[in-house]
Structures are given as C-alpha cells and as structure tokens.
C-alpha cells in the first residue's frame, strides 16, 4: 500500500468517525429530550389520576402520544440519513414530504 492510498483511507475513516459522532450526539439530544418530556408528562398524569384531582388527563396523554410519534419520526430521519436504501419507498426524508429540503 502506498502512502497516498493510506492517507486517503485514513481521511475516509476520520470522516466516518465524525459522522458517527454527530449521529450519536443527535440521537442523544433528540431522543433523550423526547423521552424526558414523555416521562414528566406521564408522571403528571399518574399523579392527577392517583391523587383524585379529577382533572382530565386526555390533553397530557395526547402530548405523550405526540412526543412518541415525534421520536419515531426522528428515528426514521436518522435511519434515512445513514442508509437511504433502508427507506427505498421514498426519495425524500420521511419528514420532508413537501420537498422543502430540495432534491436528494
């Protein structure tokens, strides 16, 4: 193996590592924040039902469901970004049905 080939291979490995680090940070931030929100809302609903407050838990349960759907969407976007072939039925990221991100 010649030195230029080694340098090219090394540069590619470094770029892949940067991508992995960015994906890990995005996963941590997005999924962690969403799960924390769902946990807090769940606890509020649990206390309102268990405490006999008699409040309507439906709006908070709706927020929990919306958060779960948002997290699922985030995961789809990440999978698409890593491997567009994993979602071969579409040419756009799942969150871009109107083509706002432009051609892929």
End-to-end Cα distance, whole Å, is 35 Å
Low-confidence sequence ranges: 98-104
Q: How many structural domains does the protein architecture include?
A: 1
**Helical percentage:** over 70%
Q: Largest beta sheet, briefly?
A: none
Provide the structure class: mainly alpha
Percent strand: under 5%
Order of helices and strands: HH
Gyration radius, in Å: 21 Å
* Mean of residue pLDDT values: 76
Please give the number of β-strands.
Answer: 0
Describe this structure in words.
With 104 residues, this protein is mainly α. It has one domain (3-83). It contains two helices and no strands. The protein has helices at 3-50, 58-82. α1 (3-50) packs antiparallel against α2 (58-82). It is elongated, with a radius of gyration of 21 Å. The relative contact order is 0.09. The model is unreliable at 98-104 (pLDDT under 50).
How would you summarize what this structure contains?
The protein is mainly α. It has helices at residues 3-50, 58-82.
Task: Name the features.
2 helices; disordered C terminus; elongated; 104 residues; mainly alpha
């Amino acid at each position: 193996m010649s030195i230029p080939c080694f340098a090219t291979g090394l540069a590619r490995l470094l770029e892949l590592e940067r991508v992995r680090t960015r994906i890990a940070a995005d996963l941590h931030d997005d999924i962690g924040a969403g799960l924390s929100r769902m946990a807090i809302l769940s606890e509020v609903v649990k206390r309102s039902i268990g405490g006999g407050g008699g409040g309507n838990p439906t709006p908070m349960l709706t927020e929990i469901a919306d958060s779960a759907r948002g997290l699922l969407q985030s995961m789809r976007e990440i999978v698409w970004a890593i491997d567009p072939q994993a979602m071969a039925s579409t040419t756009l990221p799942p969150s871009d049905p109107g083509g706002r991100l432009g051609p892929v």
